[in-house]
Design brief:
By secondary structure, the chain is α/β, with parallel strands linked by helices. Helices cover 43% and strands 17% of the residues. It has helices at 18-27, 49-65, 76-87, 98-108, 120-125, 127-135, 149-154, 161-171, 193-198, 209-223, 243-254; strands at 8-12, 33-37, 70-73, 94-95, 113-118, 140-145, 181-185, 205-208, 235-239, 261-263. The longest helix has 17 residues, at 49-65.
Length: 267
Protein backbone atom coordinates (compact mmCIF):
# COMPACT_ATOMS: atom_id res chain seq x y z
CA UNK A 1 0.00 0.00 0.00
CA UNK A 2 1.49 3.32 -1.07
CA UNK A 3 1.45 6.32 1.25
CA UNK A 4 -0.60 8.80 -0.77
CA UNK A 5 1.18 11.86 0.64
CA UNK A 6 4.70 10.57 0.04
CA UNK A 7 6.58 12.38 -2.75
CA UNK A 8 7.09 11.25 -6.33
CA UNK A 9 10.75 10.68 -7.22
CA UNK A 10 11.97 11.90 -10.60
CA UNK A 11 15.49 11.55 -11.95
CA UNK A 12 17.53 12.42 -15.02
CA UNK A 13 21.16 12.73 -15.98
CA UNK A 14 20.96 16.50 -15.58
CA UNK A 15 18.47 19.31 -16.08
CA UNK A 16 16.23 17.81 -18.74
CA UNK A 17 13.91 15.95 -16.39
CA UNK A 18 12.68 19.27 -15.06
CA UNK A 19 10.45 19.39 -18.15
CA UNK A 20 8.72 16.31 -16.71
CA UNK A 21 8.54 17.97 -13.29
CA UNK A 22 6.85 21.00 -14.88
CA UNK A 23 4.24 18.76 -16.53
CA UNK A 24 3.65 16.88 -13.27
CA UNK A 25 3.23 20.11 -11.28
CA UNK A 26 0.67 21.32 -13.82
CA UNK A 27 -1.38 18.11 -13.95
CA UNK A 28 -1.01 17.03 -10.31
CA UNK A 29 -0.76 20.22 -8.23
CA UNK A 30 -1.09 18.41 -4.89
CA UNK A 31 1.91 16.13 -5.40
CA UNK A 32 5.29 16.73 -3.78
CA UNK A 33 8.30 15.84 -5.92
CA UNK A 34 11.91 14.93 -5.21
CA UNK A 35 14.10 15.56 -8.24
CA UNK A 36 17.57 14.10 -8.72
CA UNK A 37 19.89 15.37 -11.45
CA UNK A 38 23.13 13.46 -11.94
CA UNK A 39 24.97 16.59 -13.07
CA UNK A 40 28.45 15.21 -12.27
CA UNK A 41 28.01 12.40 -14.79
CA UNK A 42 25.91 14.00 -17.54
CA UNK A 43 25.47 13.07 -20.37
CA UNK A 44 24.28 9.47 -20.11
CA UNK A 45 23.71 9.19 -23.85
CA UNK A 46 27.34 8.50 -24.71
CA UNK A 47 27.85 5.89 -21.97
CA UNK A 48 27.40 2.11 -22.04
CA UNK A 49 24.19 0.40 -20.94
CA UNK A 50 26.07 -1.21 -18.03
CA UNK A 51 27.27 2.17 -16.76
CA UNK A 52 23.89 3.86 -17.16
CA UNK A 53 22.19 0.98 -15.34
CA UNK A 54 24.71 1.24 -12.47
CA UNK A 55 24.13 4.99 -12.14
CA UNK A 56 20.35 4.51 -12.30
CA UNK A 57 20.40 1.84 -9.58
CA UNK A 58 22.35 4.19 -7.32
CA UNK A 59 19.84 7.00 -7.83
CA UNK A 60 16.82 4.71 -7.36
CA UNK A 61 18.27 3.51 -4.05
CA UNK A 62 18.76 7.13 -2.96
CA UNK A 63 15.17 8.03 -3.83
CA UNK A 64 13.79 4.95 -2.07
CA UNK A 65 15.55 6.07 1.11
CA UNK A 66 13.58 9.31 0.76
CA UNK A 67 10.35 7.21 0.96
CA UNK A 68 9.06 8.09 -2.52
CA UNK A 69 5.84 6.36 -3.61
CA UNK A 70 6.80 6.19 -7.30
CA UNK A 71 9.89 6.76 -9.43
CA UNK A 72 9.74 8.43 -12.84
CA UNK A 73 12.82 7.74 -14.95
CA UNK A 74 12.76 11.10 -16.75
CA UNK A 75 15.75 10.13 -18.85
CA UNK A 76 15.26 8.46 -22.20
CA UNK A 77 18.67 6.78 -22.10
CA UNK A 78 18.05 5.28 -18.64
CA UNK A 79 14.50 4.32 -19.64
CA UNK A 80 15.84 2.57 -22.73
CA UNK A 81 18.65 0.68 -21.00
CA UNK A 82 17.92 0.33 -17.28
CA UNK A 83 14.15 0.32 -16.68
CA UNK A 84 13.54 -3.47 -16.39
CA UNK A 85 16.33 -3.86 -13.84
CA UNK A 86 15.10 -0.85 -11.89
CA UNK A 87 11.61 -2.36 -11.74
CA UNK A 88 12.84 -5.80 -10.67
CA UNK A 89 11.96 -6.67 -7.05
CA UNK A 90 10.91 -3.15 -6.10
CA UNK A 91 7.48 -2.68 -4.58
CA UNK A 92 6.65 0.78 -5.94
CA UNK A 93 5.75 1.70 -9.53
CA UNK A 94 8.75 2.77 -11.63
CA UNK A 95 7.91 4.16 -15.06
CA UNK A 96 9.97 5.48 -17.95
CA UNK A 97 9.36 7.89 -20.78
CA UNK A 98 9.64 5.60 -23.81
CA UNK A 99 6.22 3.94 -24.02
CA UNK A 100 4.12 7.04 -23.18
CA UNK A 101 5.98 9.04 -25.84
CA UNK A 102 5.64 6.26 -28.40
CA UNK A 103 1.90 5.97 -27.74
CA UNK A 104 1.42 9.73 -28.13
CA UNK A 105 3.27 9.73 -31.46
CA UNK A 106 1.34 6.72 -32.75
CA UNK A 107 -1.93 8.49 -31.94
CA UNK A 108 -0.78 11.70 -33.61
CA UNK A 109 0.73 10.57 -36.92
CA UNK A 110 -1.38 10.96 -40.03
CA UNK A 111 0.67 8.86 -42.45
CA UNK A 112 2.35 6.29 -40.13
CA UNK A 113 5.82 7.77 -40.73
CA UNK A 114 7.46 8.67 -37.40
CA UNK A 115 10.89 10.13 -36.71
CA UNK A 116 12.77 9.70 -33.44
CA UNK A 117 15.65 11.86 -32.24
CA UNK A 118 17.63 11.02 -29.12
CA UNK A 119 21.02 10.36 -27.62
CA UNK A 120 23.33 7.82 -29.21
CA UNK A 121 22.53 5.27 -26.49
CA UNK A 122 18.76 5.72 -26.80
CA UNK A 123 18.79 5.39 -30.58
CA UNK A 124 21.13 2.39 -30.60
CA UNK A 125 19.02 0.63 -27.97
CA UNK A 126 16.09 0.44 -30.40
CA UNK A 127 13.73 1.13 -27.49
CA UNK A 128 11.52 3.59 -29.37
CA UNK A 129 11.53 1.45 -32.51
CA UNK A 130 10.38 -1.59 -30.52
CA UNK A 131 7.78 0.36 -28.53
CA UNK A 132 6.32 1.92 -31.67
CA UNK A 133 6.21 -1.37 -33.57
CA UNK A 134 4.51 -3.04 -30.58
CA UNK A 135 1.81 -0.39 -30.77
CA UNK A 136 1.46 -0.45 -34.57
CA UNK A 137 3.46 -2.89 -36.75
CA UNK A 138 2.67 -0.81 -39.85
CA UNK A 139 4.63 2.25 -38.69
CA UNK A 140 7.65 3.38 -40.69
CA UNK A 141 10.28 4.66 -38.25
CA UNK A 142 13.33 6.82 -38.96
CA UNK A 143 15.80 7.44 -36.12
CA UNK A 144 18.59 10.01 -35.76
CA UNK A 145 21.11 10.29 -32.91
CA UNK A 146 21.76 13.92 -31.89
CA UNK A 147 24.55 13.68 -29.29
CA UNK A 148 25.41 17.40 -29.26
CA UNK A 149 21.91 18.51 -28.21
CA UNK A 150 22.34 17.64 -24.51
CA UNK A 151 25.60 19.58 -23.99
CA UNK A 152 24.09 22.54 -25.86
CA UNK A 153 21.15 22.59 -23.47
CA UNK A 154 23.32 22.04 -20.39
CA UNK A 155 25.38 25.08 -21.44
CA UNK A 156 22.22 27.13 -21.96
CA UNK A 157 22.80 27.40 -25.73
CA UNK A 158 19.18 26.80 -26.69
CA UNK A 159 19.01 29.50 -29.37
CA UNK A 160 21.30 31.28 -31.78
CA UNK A 161 23.45 30.32 -34.74
CA UNK A 162 25.34 27.43 -33.14
CA UNK A 163 22.22 25.56 -32.02
CA UNK A 164 20.53 26.28 -35.36
CA UNK A 165 23.47 24.98 -37.37
CA UNK A 166 23.70 21.77 -35.32
CA UNK A 167 19.94 21.13 -35.52
CA UNK A 168 19.75 21.66 -39.27
CA UNK A 169 22.72 19.35 -39.85
CA UNK A 170 21.22 16.58 -37.72
CA UNK A 171 17.64 16.88 -38.94
CA UNK A 172 18.27 17.27 -42.67
CA UNK A 173 17.25 13.63 -43.44
CA UNK A 174 13.74 14.31 -42.09
CA UNK A 175 13.29 16.95 -44.79
CA UNK A 176 13.86 14.32 -47.47
CA UNK A 177 11.37 11.64 -46.41
CA UNK A 178 7.72 11.37 -45.43
CA UNK A 179 8.06 11.74 -41.64
CA UNK A 180 5.13 13.76 -40.29
CA UNK A 181 5.68 13.27 -36.55
CA UNK A 182 8.96 13.50 -34.61
CA UNK A 183 9.47 12.26 -31.06
CA UNK A 184 11.79 14.39 -28.93
CA UNK A 185 13.44 11.32 -27.46
CA UNK A 186 15.34 13.11 -24.70
CA UNK A 187 13.94 15.28 -21.93
CA UNK A 188 16.54 17.96 -22.73
CA UNK A 189 15.22 18.42 -26.25
CA UNK A 190 12.03 20.41 -25.47
CA UNK A 191 14.33 23.32 -24.59
CA UNK A 192 15.47 23.23 -28.22
CA UNK A 193 11.92 22.89 -29.54
CA UNK A 194 11.91 26.23 -31.38
CA UNK A 195 15.22 25.46 -33.09
CA UNK A 196 14.09 21.93 -33.95
CA UNK A 197 10.78 23.18 -35.34
CA UNK A 198 12.36 25.64 -37.78
CA UNK A 199 14.77 22.92 -38.90
CA UNK A 200 11.91 20.68 -40.05
CA UNK A 201 9.11 21.04 -42.61
CA UNK A 202 6.19 23.07 -41.24
CA UNK A 203 3.84 20.09 -41.43
CA UNK A 204 5.89 17.97 -38.99
CA UNK A 205 4.38 17.57 -35.52
CA UNK A 206 6.61 17.31 -32.43
CA UNK A 207 5.94 14.95 -29.53
CA UNK A 208 7.23 15.96 -26.11
CA UNK A 209 6.88 12.93 -23.85
CA UNK A 210 6.68 14.99 -20.65
CA UNK A 211 2.91 15.46 -20.90
CA UNK A 212 2.36 11.81 -21.84
CA UNK A 213 4.45 10.67 -18.86
CA UNK A 214 2.56 12.90 -16.42
CA UNK A 215 -0.73 11.37 -17.62
CA UNK A 216 0.73 7.90 -17.04
CA UNK A 217 1.78 8.93 -13.51
CA UNK A 218 -1.75 10.10 -12.75
CA UNK A 219 -3.18 6.84 -14.13
CA UNK A 220 -0.83 4.66 -12.07
CA UNK A 221 -1.49 6.59 -8.84
CA UNK A 222 -5.25 6.54 -9.40
CA UNK A 223 -5.13 2.78 -9.92
CA UNK A 224 -3.39 2.40 -6.56
CA UNK A 225 -5.58 4.98 -4.76
CA UNK A 226 -2.38 6.92 -4.07
CA UNK A 227 -3.07 10.44 -5.32
CA UNK A 228 -2.06 13.02 -2.70
CA UNK A 229 -4.85 14.57 -0.66
CA UNK A 230 -2.63 17.33 0.73
CA UNK A 231 -2.29 20.71 -0.95
CA UNK A 232 1.22 21.26 0.48
CA UNK A 233 3.12 20.64 -2.74
CA UNK A 234 6.89 20.78 -2.36
CA UNK A 235 9.75 20.40 -4.81
CA UNK A 236 13.10 19.22 -3.43
CA UNK A 237 16.13 18.99 -5.71
CA UNK A 238 19.37 17.05 -5.38
CA UNK A 239 22.35 17.12 -7.76
CA UNK A 240 25.78 15.50 -7.86
CA UNK A 241 27.64 18.64 -9.01
CA UNK A 242 27.21 22.36 -9.81
CA UNK A 243 24.13 23.17 -7.67
CA UNK A 244 24.37 26.91 -8.44
CA UNK A 245 24.46 26.33 -12.18
CA UNK A 246 21.53 23.90 -11.84
CA UNK A 247 19.51 26.58 -10.04
CA UNK A 248 20.29 29.19 -12.70
CA UNK A 249 19.52 27.02 -15.76
CA UNK A 250 16.76 25.08 -14.02
CA UNK A 251 14.47 28.10 -13.91
CA UNK A 252 14.44 28.04 -17.72
CA UNK A 253 13.39 24.37 -17.76
CA UNK A 254 10.82 24.63 -14.98
CA UNK A 255 9.39 28.04 -15.79
CA UNK A 256 9.76 29.22 -12.20
CA UNK A 257 12.46 29.72 -9.61
CA UNK A 258 13.93 26.62 -8.00
CA UNK A 259 14.19 25.98 -4.27
CA UNK A 260 17.62 25.50 -2.71
CA UNK A 261 19.41 22.64 -4.46
CA UNK A 262 21.31 20.13 -2.32
CA UNK A 263 24.62 18.58 -3.37
CA UNK A 264 25.05 14.84 -2.76
CA UNK A 265 27.71 12.24 -3.63
CA UNK A 266 26.58 8.72 -4.46
CA UNK A 267 29.92 6.89 -4.72
Amino acid sequence: MLNRNSPIGVFDSGLGGLTVVAALKHLLPNESIIYFGDTARVPYGTKSAVTVTHFSQQIASFLLKKKVKMIVVACNTASATALPKLQDKRNIPIIGVIHPGAKAASDLTRNNHIGVIGTTATIHSGAYFNALRDINPDLVIESIACPLFVPLVEEGWTEGSVATLVARRYLEPFSQNCVDTVILGCTHYPLLKDIIRISLPESVQLVDSAEAVSCEVEKQLQKRDALADSSQQELTCFVTDFPRKFEELGEHFLGESLPDVSLVHLD
